[in-house]
Write a structure and sequence with these properties.
Length: 279
């Protein structure tokens, strides 16, 4: 098989002993298809990929034989089997790796800082953080810990506990006021957590730090267990509580849904019995 048979070599694909050009071109054929190009002819694929018709035909028929494509003799299209390529990748991803791009998209949409946290003991621990600008006096990064009772994500995670686990938490936790707005009455906190369970979201108003408002929703596994929480935080001088509920919450719920959809493709979360699912 000559280089002429294989088509032009793109300049950014330096040919080395370790570079498998046929694999690269096979992937080019697969990615030629998309939402606006669900069905393509041989000529279409050759034009999009820059391959010769003969080379494109060989790749297409090989993919048909392997079950990744179907053809009616003229048009080619991908089969659901091609999803296995993505699932193989997703199955090895951690919660952090799955969630991060969705958090980035959320921040790009609403232009406010967002994070994902898990419950570790009586604290929330940040596992994803995408800031827009510094809005807190304390710098937040992956690994930062805060008391669960005073944060929107913490209350979401507390709402995901069983009744016995929540009662044990309320009995042992020291509800120290972090600001003049922090809820420190156990009965009031329990009532708020019950409301969060019913409503599916939490909003805190300057309880962690004065001038900071936050709203959070749960991230659940396929079994419905809360494994993490995702939030949006903003300055109280710019964003009202009503705005957080009416404008931010729908975007937050959509981001959580997208994360859950991707997590459902991973073994550890689909079964609901992984490390994070046990928290």
């Amino acid at each position: 098989m000559t280089q002429a048979d294989e088509g032009p070599v793109t300049p950014d694909r330096e040919q080395t002993r370790d570079f498998v050009q046929s694999l690269s071109r096979g992937l080019d054929v697969i990615t030629a298809f998309g939402p606006d190009r669900q069905s393509l002819t041989l000529s279409d694929v050759a034009r999009i990929t820059g391959l010769t018709r003969a080379t494109a035909r060989r790749f297409l028929l090989t993919l048909v034989e392997l079950g990744y494509m179907r053809t009616d003799g003229k048009f080619f299209s991908l089969t659901p089997h091609v999803l296995n390529l993505g699932f193989s990748y997703l199955s090895g991803l951690s919660l952090t790796e799955v969630a991060h791009p969705h958090v980035q998209d959320l921040v790009s949409t609403v232009h406010e800082s967002s994070s994902v946290a898990v419950l570790d003991g009586d604290d929330v621990v940040y596992v994803v953080r995408v800031p827009t600008k510094r809005i807190m006096t304390v710098a937040i990064s992956v690994g930062t810990r805060f008391p669960a009772f005073a944060t929107s994500m913490g209350r979401i995670l507390l709402a995901g506990l069983s009744s016995d686990q929540l009662e044990a938490y309320l009995e042992r936790v020291n509800l120290v006021p972090l600001t003049r707005f922090t809820v420190t009455d156990p009965k009031r906190l329990r009532q708020m957590i019950d409301e969060i369970r019913a409503e599916g979201f939490a909003i805190t108003d300057q309880e962690l730090e004065e001038g900071l408002r936050s709203t959070a929703v749960p991230i659940r596994d396929a079994g419905g267990n809360t494994i993490a929480a995702i939030n949006l935080s903003a300055q109280a001088t710019r964003v009202t509580l009503a705005h957080m509920r009416d404008e931010f919450l729908p975007h937050l719920l959509e981001a959580a849904h997208r994360i859950e959809t991707d997590l459902a493709a991973t073994d550890r979360y689909a079964k609901g019995n992984g490390e994070e699912g046990a928290r």
